[in-house]
Design brief:
By secondary structure, the protein is an alpha/beta fold. 48% of the residues lie in helices and 18% in strands. It is built from 9 helices and 8 strands. Bound molecules: 2'-deoxycytidine-5'-monophosphate.
Length: 228
């Protein structure tokens, strides 16, 4: 029997990976791994336990004990920590920045590696993250790196926040995005970068429909899967 198929989608925050991977997983009837949620929940658990994000030993202990699960509901995938739904708490800008901090520790990444690989089952997995195609699933049959300029990502994030009735300052959000990019790109282990064999899609001037069609055509070409 052939191995389950992995579609690895990496790229910086706000490039549109979330929506792209959701749509691909739905179209292919594959499971979805949102690896960023794991780092977000870990940072949340560390803070909740009263521990410091800069204390690598404490963070790695939390990573080893992390009681995390995903639940598929009508309005999307929810993230549970010890049975408590923490989906909204982990989706803030601060939670993203904290996730990026704990994700920079090599020991933490090592502690979470096997757990991420365990998401792979028949018929396949769509994996969303920063190092899906380079480290977690280096043999993925399909690797896509979804990029967009920091300015475009900041603008999209502002519109997203405003649509939820929240205030958004473009310059502050741009600065936060640039800081997170720098940390994710320059860490010593599993930095954010395109795998050598990844298709790079720059979504700066593309709408989600075009990104989805481009990615789906590539998936079909690489795997031979028939998908409508
Ligand atoms: O994709 P996201 O915004 O939910 O990710 C939050 C942070 O987690 C991101 O800034 C870096 C880290 N992360 C990572 O290091 N490796 C991954 N595979 C996914 C996320």
């Amino acid at each position: 029997m052939s191995d389950p198929i992995v579609i690895a989608v990496d790229g910086p925050g706000g490039a549109g990976k979330g929506e792209l991977t959701r749509r691909l997983a739905e179209a292919l009837d594959f499971d979805l791994l949102d690896s960023g949620a794991i780092y977000r929940v870990l940072a949340y658990a560390v803070r909740k336990a009263g521990l410091a994000l800069f204390d690598e030993d404490s963070v790695v202990q939390e990573a080893k004990l992390l009681n995390l699960s995903f639940e598929c509901l009508d309005d999307g995938v929810h993230v549970l920590l010890g049975g408590e739904d923490v989906s909204s708490q982990i989706r803030t800008e601060e939670a993203g920045a904290n996730a990026s901090k704990v994700a920079a520790y090599p020991s933490v990444r090592q502690a979470l590696l096997q757990r991420q690989r365990e998401f792979l089952k028949e018929p396949g997995l769509v994996a969303d993250g920063r190092d899906m195609g380079t480290v977690v699933f280096p043999k993925a049959q399909v690797k896509i790196f979804l990029d967009a300029s920091a300015e475009v990502r900041a603008k999209r994030r502002c519109l997203q926040l405003e649509s939820k009735g929240k205030t958004a300052d473009f310059d502050t959000i741009l600065k936060e995005i640039q800081e997170r990019d720098d940390r994710d790109r320059n860490r010593p282990v599993a930095p954010l970068k395109a795998a050598d064999d990844a298709l790079v899609i720059d979504s700066s001037d593309m709408d989600i429909e075009t990104v989805y069609k481009t990615a789906l055509d590539y998936v079909k070409q690489k795997t031979g899967l028939k998908v409508e």
